[in-house]
Amino acid sequence: MNEETLQLVAKVPQVTFVFWIIKILATTLGETGGDAVTMSWLRETTAEAKGTGYLIGTGIFGVIFIVAVLVQIRAKKFHPFLYWLTIVATTTVGTTLADYCDRSLGIGYTGGSAILLTCVIASLLIWRWSTGSLSIETVSTPKVEIFYWVTIMFSQTLGTALGDWVADTNEMGYVGAAGVFGGLLLVTALLSYFTTISHVILFWTAFILTRPLGAVVGDFLDKPHAQGGLALSRYTASLALLVVIVGLILIFPQKPASKAH
């Protein structure tokens, strides 16, 4: 592996326990942050946005996502705050896009989840066919980075729809849905430690599962009491999550991924 490849790989963080904690918090922030814009800010500032808020929010966060990905790809080395900013951007655009498809377009949670799952699988298959590997250690060229971030964006969008589907359609509530996805994550972790199942497959399984977990936790924080939530301010919840994420990044400095990981 040459020096240029090592520099590109170094832009992806090592997968550690703290990585997964920050990922769950980031996905929760994506839910509360996306809702803060589409369900609070736009509805408070523009009366007409009530019917188009999800589309406008998707446009706003879509631009942020594209800019963040372009900056991330052009970076010469791993920058923790840039990386996690891009992750948060994928979660917020995923939240608003899923809500737009499920609610404004009337596709529904089941239909939206099915379509997005197909997109995730297709993205992974094309990535694997085009490059020969799905391992994060192969994120060593702009082409592979694009596959990486597109797959993540689809997985974040799927997570929102899947979280809503389990919590609402199946009437499990946000706490029950969090238990389901948390349990699936635990099973995935155990499989990683005690079986020989491909760690690449388990990584992407866990990566996808963190999103619906974050989505239902975010809904639990800011939805009204009548819907089973805590009715916290979306702005306050988002700010608190952001502070915790920044604190974890500062307290636990992350190293760039290496071949050993």
Topology overview:
Blueprint: H1 3-9, H2 17-45, H3 49-74, H4 80-104, H5 108-131, H6 142-169, H7 173-194, H8 199-222, H9 234-251
Description of the structure:
- This protein is mainly α and 261 residues long.
- It has one domain (3-251).
- 78% of the residues lie in helices and 0% in strands.
- The protein is built from nine helices and no strands.
- The protein has helices spanning 3-9, 17-45, 49-74, 80-104, 108-131, 142-169, 173-194, 199-222, 234-251.
- Helix 3 packs antiparallel against helix 4.
- The longest helix has 29 residues, at 17-45.
- It is globular.
- Residues 1-9 have low confidence and may be disordered.
Continuous helix count: 9
- How many individual domains? 1
Distance between the termini: 15 Å
Question: Can you tell me the residue ranges where pLDDT is under 50 for at least 5 consecutive residues?
Answer: 1-9
The percentage of residues in β strands lies in under 5%
Q: Count every beta strand, where a strand is a DSSP E run of 2 or more residues.
A: 0
Structural class: mainly alpha
Features:
261 residues; 78% helix; globular; disordered N terminus
Task: Tell me briefly what this model is.
The chain has one domain (3-251).
